[in-house]
Amino acid sequence: MNNIALGRYLPLDSALHKVDPRFKLIGMLMMLTAIFLNVGWIGYLFLALMLLIGVIVSKIRISFFLKSFKPMMYMMIFLLIINILSLKTGTLVFTLGSFKIYSDALLQTAYIMVRLVLMITVTTLLTASTAPLDMTLGIEDLLKPLRRFGVPAHEIALMISIALRFIPTLIEEAQRIMQAQASRGVDFQEGTIKEKVSGILSLIVPLFVSAFQRAEDLADAMEARGYAPGKPRTRYKQLIIRHSDWFFLIFIILILAVCIYLAVM
Q1: 43 CB burial (10 A radius; 0-12, 13-18, 19+)
Q2: What number of other Cβ atoms are within 10 A of residue 233's Cβ?
């Protein structure tokens, strides 16, 4: 449970934390676009170096990112098995019993793994360096042009911000429930499949009850403070664009341009 870093904001004093949230959101979309381009191993190495620079600038410990990659191992094993069973192209690498493992299966799994690592790094950088309130204001400003078509920009931004904020809260709640169930004799590690399923159900049910209770408490608190969806609202905090924000955006555009060039070539 402690390995999930997405959604956790780290209040540090870094240059990345000071970047306008609107520019960081646009930069995240550009970086995700670059990751999904077929840039080859040279392009992925270039993106990894750029993200490493971002991690250094943000002053966030690398271990904060590394521990979030551990849950991916089960997904990677599953994808490797699926690719081994489905992809039968490329050169024969080695034979495992009656199964023949080809190079394309390993290469495809490696591509997916690299992309997932880069995607998680980008999204974690965004959530760890952007306060929930700034995230809400940034998303709302980016969605403002859609108001002409009846899109509730503020409500959508608020829902996204609350969802991101509740990720670490629900993780901590799940960990407390697991400890409480373990003290009552529930074993989540050992036992038969039936016992493990029963243990997971004993975790999911109270977690859902707690989540709904928190949502109800949050709704009551917002209503008590006079929040009304769809009504005109003023802001205490205003987002101001600085010269460093433009430099950040130009830097991201250059990264995307290099990736597009590598994909085309």
Answers
A1: buried
A2: 10
pLDDT in tens, the chain (265 residues): 455 566 678 888 899 999 999 999 999 999 999 999 988 889 999 999 999 999 999 998 888 887 777 767 777 777 777 777 776 777 777 776 677 777 777 788 888 888 888 998 898 888 889 887 888 888 888 888 887 887 788 788 878 778 777 777 787 788 787 777 777 776 666 666 666 667 677 778 888 888 888 888 888 888 888 887 777 777 777 788 889 999 999 999 999 999 999 998 8
Structure tokens at 139: 């998303």
Separation between Cα atoms, residue 10 and residue 150, nearest integer Å: 35
Residue type present at position 145: P
Q: Which helix (H) or strand (E) holds 239?
A: none
